[in-house]
Amino acid sequence: MGKTILECIETKVPEGLQLTIDQKKVTVNGPLGEVQQDFTHAPVYIKKVDDKVIVETRWPNKKTAAMVKTVSSRIRKMIIGVTEGFTYKLKIVFAHFPISVKVQNENVIIENFYGERSPRIAKIVGNTKVEVNAEDVIVKGINIDEVSQTAANIQQATRIKKFDPRVFLDGVYVYEKTEGIQ
Description:
This protein has helices at 62-83, 144-157, and strands spanning 6-12, 18-22, 25-30, 33-38, 45-49, 52-58, 86-93, 100-104, 107-111, 120-123, 129-133, 136-141, 171-179. The chain has a four-stranded antiparallel beta sheet, with helices on one face. A three-stranded antiparallel beta sheet has the order 1-6-5, covered by helices on one side. A three-stranded antiparallel beta sheet has the order 2-3-4, with helices on one face. The protein is an alpha+beta fold. The protein has two domains: 6-83, Ribosomal protein L6 (Outer Surface Protein A, domain 3); 86-179, Ribosomal protein L6 (Outer Surface Protein A, domain 3, Alpha-Beta Complex), CATH 3.90.930.
């Protein structure tokens, strides 16, 4: 089996989107906003030809071939973000003490978790919007990194220690990830 000379992936850019590449910094403008990503750390070449973005590397080893796929996937997620957006839904679950969740400025405040007096605080990352509807917390945005990190911050804020998590199920858990802001 011979050595691969070129690893290359093409991604089509839909009409109505403006995609610019400055060195290895990719910016995508769309109807929902703008998303930027810096790929200067990646050993790949990124170029735009007509309505396609081409990510390639020459004489790749295993890691650089995988990096081509990763960068291409990240650019696809940027395109989806500015056209549809991302929504994560979290469920507030409690059996012992009723948990109250509210949004204040750049933080999500979780009160009365296991009857604790001090609230637990989760940071909202970037331009992500967080809504609380009865038993659901809805996290929306156009940048998948910011949306997923905000959802993870909320879930991690209610992580319990020193108890069996199979018995003490109280917390806020991600139960649905969708493309599109509803």
